[in-house]
Amino acid sequence: MITLTNLRKIYRQKTSEVVALDGVSLEVRPGEVFGVLGQSGAGKSTLIRCVNLLERPTEGTVVVDGQELTTLSGAALRKARQRIGMIFQHFNLLSSRTVADNIALPLEVMGRGRKERQARVAELLALVGLEDKARAYPAQLSGGQKQRVGIARALAGEPHVLLSDEATSALDPETTQAILQLLRDLNQRLGLTILLITHEMAVVRQICDRVAVLEAGRVVEQGAVDELVARPGTLLGRTFFAHANGHIPRSGARIATLTFVGEAAERPLLTTLGRRFEVDVSILSGSVEKLGYRRVGQLQVELVGAGVDPALQYLREHGMDVKVH
Question: Is 152 a residue whose pLDDT tops 90?
Fold first, then answer.
């Protein structure tokens, strides 16, 4: 649905240049939620604004739903943008307009008739759970309600793609969870492709199917979230599992980090080691988290016994990633 190829964005100043994006390439598949994770200054906002050409890239191509946007301008570009919705960190609602009128604004720009606008606004208010707020003004709404209005407005033109520019950063954790659940519901109900940028691992954990990690304008790793989390040494895995390492083993013991996803997290594999291999297992640190609809975990364990090597091989054969220290 979205293909970015060798994207570069350079901001030229009088005496210097700032390279915001440096050869970024990624693909977003139809119907998935794709996250771009990075810290402030990594180039995330520039990247997402290049997707709908609010920022025109210095080099590279942007293809959305089979159409190369970087070749378009004027009326053709405006028409293409109608198929791309966007929601923002600070909502960007018009304070002088009611909720219904804010949602109707894109339909007015598209030249839709009054009756069509009213019907579509009513449909969108129901979709985001704000049927009773049609005549309210933004100042009368909570942050979560304002973002729901922003989402409804972004969906007014029935876009194929929704861009989310740090849409939950201004919200409290409980409201953030509710908005992310709404986005996931819309993704599944409408078949909507969502590209979101965030600096929060919790957002990636809750909603994303795949993710790209951005540093200094470059993609340093990308792939399925659970695969990156389970792969030893990835930035995503280190961010996801932030518990301490560095334990010193007792004499005759070995320390291993065990990472497991999905079915491996459901099996009593560690208790099997004692019975089958006569190995004592002590858990030193770790956590088991929910990642979308799957469980992902990482444990640092200390193993003692003559059967440690075959025990570790047994864990590998049953879906665990094993790193011995």
Answer: yes
User: Nearest 5°: CA angle at 26, between 212 and 223?
Assistant: 40
Tokens of 214: 């951005």
78 CB neighbour count, 10 Å cutoff: 12
Read off the pLDDT of each residue in 71-75 and give the average, rounded to a whole number.
91
33 close to 198: Cβ distance less than 8 angstroms: no
Query: Per residue in 163-200, pLDDT tens?
Result: 999 988 888 888 999 999 999 999 999 999 999 999 88
The first and second tokens of residue 58, run together, are 């210095």
For the chain, the domains span 2-235, 243-324
CATH number for the domain running over 2-235: 3.40.50.300
Spatial neighbors of 126 by CB under 8 A, at least 6 apart, are none
Contact 312, 324 (CB under 8 A): yes
Q: What is the pLDDT of residues 227-256, one digit of tens each?
A: 888 776 788 877 776 544 445 556 677 888
114: which 2 tokens?
Answer: 């009054």
CA distances to 188, 225, 283, 296, 312 from 288, in Å? 26, 15, 13, 6, 19
| % the chain with pLDDT above 70 | 94
- DSSP class of residue 249 equals P
The pLDDT assigned to 250 comes to 62
Query: 174: Cβ–Cβ under 8 A, 6 or more apart, which residues?
Result: none
Tracing tokens 């570790």 back to the chain, one arrives at: 312
118-124: long-range pairs with CB below 8 Å, 24+: 120/156, 121/152, 121/156, 124/152, 124/153, 124/155, 124/156
Among the four given CATH numbers 3.30.70.260, 3.40.50.150, 3.40.50.920, 3.30.470.10, the one describing domain 243-324: 3.30.70.260
